[in-house]
Write a structure and sequence with these properties.
Blueprint (H helix, E strand, L loop, with lengths): L4 H36 L5 H17 L5 H19 L1
Helix pairs in contact: 1-2, 1-3, 2-3
Length: about 90
């Protein structure tokens, strides 16, 4: 437990941020998983789901929840998979 008032506030802030970051990361993971599943089954809406995933990754990187290179790598891999079924 924090001993000072400022430490208590810092703890509350960090818990709040951790929860918010977890929600964003979970949403990113879920949409990537859904996208991969649609790509593997060669569904029509796979391209739309990938587009949503890219948007979510960009937002997460902009908020610094994930690093920009991580977002770029995940987007690249998703697009590569999508393009492989589009041929």
């Amino acid at each position: 437990m924090p001993n000072k008032k400022s430490a208590a506030k810092a703890l509350k802030q960090s818990v709040k941020r951790a929860v918010r970051n977890y929600k964003v990361k979970r949403a990113v993971k879920d949409i990537i998983k859904d996208s991969k599943k649609l790509i593997e089954t060669k569904e029509k809406q796979a391209a739309e789901k990938v587009k949503q995933a890219v948007k979510l990754l960009d937002k997460a990187a902009a908020k610094k929840v994930i690093k920009k290179n991580t977002a770029a790598r995940k987007k690249s891999r998703l697009m590569k998979k999508l393009n492989s079924i589009m041929k």
